[in-house]
């Protein structure tokens, strides 16, 4: 099978964390010094119990629970305004990801939760990293050479066992063009499907011919695939 990158492949492992007792001024200083939008709050064991964001800090500094006075009747929001430590500022419960999640699953979770990043936890519930929207985007921004190598080495070579040069591969701006001859017609949709499953591939354009069982050659042409 192709290696599909997971959250564990793209997450940041060195995470700036806070403790529930971290004073407000130190929280603000850590976010600013590390140029980050938020940081997880962890307990004594290292399990995430909440997240403090830059917007939480701004609410505290402006003395308003929300922009233009929104959330004026929200006691939790007013509690953040009055908070002196991270446990008062943080949002809880915290939504987390797992290192073995696929990139699409993590992206859907970020969108569903309306957050920009997720702490990543292991089987023991302890923090192992953090994954952000930009981390997930980077998984799909790959060079043409990287994609070319994966098509030739993994799809055509390791998985299908085709001889080198059987299929010529070109990659331009993430679009894969395939030219050549394969032993069986059924391999054509297989090759196309495998190529489409490679991270960073935006389209597959096959120009492949295949041998019919017990007869000559039959050109097999499929239109561009996305």
How would you describe the overall organization of this protein?
The two termini are 20 Å apart. 26% of the residues are buried. The strands form three sheets. This protein has a four-stranded mixed sheet, covered by helices on one side. The protein has a three-stranded mixed sheet with strand order 3-4-5. It has a two-stranded antiparallel sheet with strand order 1-2. Helix 3 crosses helix 4. It is elongated. With 226 residues, the chain is α/β, with parallel strands linked by helices. The chain contains nine helices and nine strands. 35% of the residues lie in helices and 23% in strands. Mean pLDDT is 86; it is low at 67-73 and 213-218. It has two domains: 7-138, CBS-domain (Roll); 144-221, 2-Layer Sandwich (Histidine-containing Protein, Chain: A), CATH 3.30.1340.30. It has helices spanning 7-10, 24-33, 54-62, 75-82, 86-89, 103-113, 133-138, 144-159, 187-196; strands spanning 38-42, 48-53, 97-98, 117-121, 127-132, 167-172, 175-182, 203-211, 217-221.
């Amino acid at each position: 099978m192709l290696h599909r990158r997971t959250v564990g492949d793209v997450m940041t492992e060195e995470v700036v964390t806070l403790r529930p007792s971290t004073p407000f001024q130190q929280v603000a200083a850590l976010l600013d010094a590390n140029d980050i939008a938020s940081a997880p709050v962890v307990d004594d064991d290292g399990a995430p119990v909440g997240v403090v964001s830059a917007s939480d800090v701004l609410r505290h500094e402006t003395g308003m629970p929300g922009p233009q006075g929104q959330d004026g009747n929200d006691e939790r929001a007013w509690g953040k305004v009055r908070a002196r430590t991270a446990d008062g500022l943080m949002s809880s419960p915290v939504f987390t990801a797992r290192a073995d999640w696929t990139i699409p699953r993590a992206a859907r979770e970020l969108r569903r939760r309306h957050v920009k990043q997720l702490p990543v936890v292991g089987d023991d519930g302890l923090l192992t990293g953090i994954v952000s929207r930009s981390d997930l985007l980077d998984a799909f921004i790959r060079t043409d050479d990287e994609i070319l190598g994966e098509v030739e080495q993994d799809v055509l070579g390791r998985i299908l066992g085709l001889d080198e040069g059987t299929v010529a591969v070109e990659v331009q701006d993430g679009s894969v063009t395939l030219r050549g001859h394969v032993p069986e017609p059924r391999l054509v949709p297989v090759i196309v499907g495998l190529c489409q499953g490679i991270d960073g591939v935006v389209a597959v354009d096959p120009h492949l011919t295949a041998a019919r069982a017990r007869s000559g050659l039959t050109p097999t042409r499929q239109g561009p695939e996305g």
